Amino acid sequence: MAKIRYTHPDGSETVVDVPEPNSVMRGAKLNNVPGIEAQCGGSAQCGTCHVYIDEANTLPLPPMDEVEDDVLYGTASPRRETSRLSCQLPVSDAIDGLVVHLPEVQS
């Protein structure tokens, strides 16, 4: 289980415990965290689970694959150096304390 901190565009935060096996996207949906639409259900096709990883992050995240990289070019909010699809971030003890920033819009 990992504690994930979702920071909303207005600066408020939602902190939830997400059990394995889930993704950061699924953790948001299971806990009714607003701001992640996840229209494709987590198959890295729609980009509506776009998040910005906190710039201070030092936790080990999986590398971005080619599909995720391509989808991030079509997201509604601008892509940044820290952009990721939350559906492609599996939850494990190793990412306990992860902070993700939710973009202004997802679609």
Short structural description:
The protein is α+β, with helices and mostly antiparallel strands and 107 residues long. It has one domain (2-101): Roll (Ubiquitin-like (UB roll)), CATH 3.10.20. It has helices at 24-30, 66-72, and strands at residues 2-7, 13-18, 50-53, 83-85, 98-101.
How would you characterize the overall build of this protein?
- This protein has helices at 24-30, 66-72; strands spanning 2-7, 13-18, 50-53, 83-85, 98-101.
- It is α+β, with helices and mostly antiparallel strands and 107 residues long.
- It has one domain (2-101): Roll (Ubiquitin-like (UB roll)).
- The chain has a 5-stranded mixed sheet.
- The longest helix has 7 residues, at 24-30.
- The N and C termini lie far apart (30 Å).
- The model has no long low-confidence stretch (mean pLDDT 97).
Q: SSE layout and pairings?
A:
Blueprint: E1 2-7, E2 13-18, H1 24-30, E3 50-53, H2 66-72, E4 83-85, E5 98-101
Parallel strand pairs: 1-5
Antiparallel strand pairs: 1-2, 3-4, 3-5
Protein name: (2Fe-2S)-binding protein
GO cellular component, one term: cytosol
InterPro entries: 2Fe-2S_ferredoxin-like_sf, 2Fe-2S_ferredoxin-type, Adrenodoxin-like, Beta-grasp_dom_sf
Strand order of the largest sheet: 2-1-5-3-4
Give the count of helical stretches.
2
Radius of gyration (Å): 12 Å
Oligomer: single chain
Strand content: 15-25%
Distance from N terminus to C terminus (CA atoms, Å) equals: 30 Å
CATH third-level topology: Ubiquitin-like (UB roll)
CATH class: Alpha Beta
Order of secondary-structure elements = EEHEHEE
How helix-rich are the residues, as a percent range? 10-25%
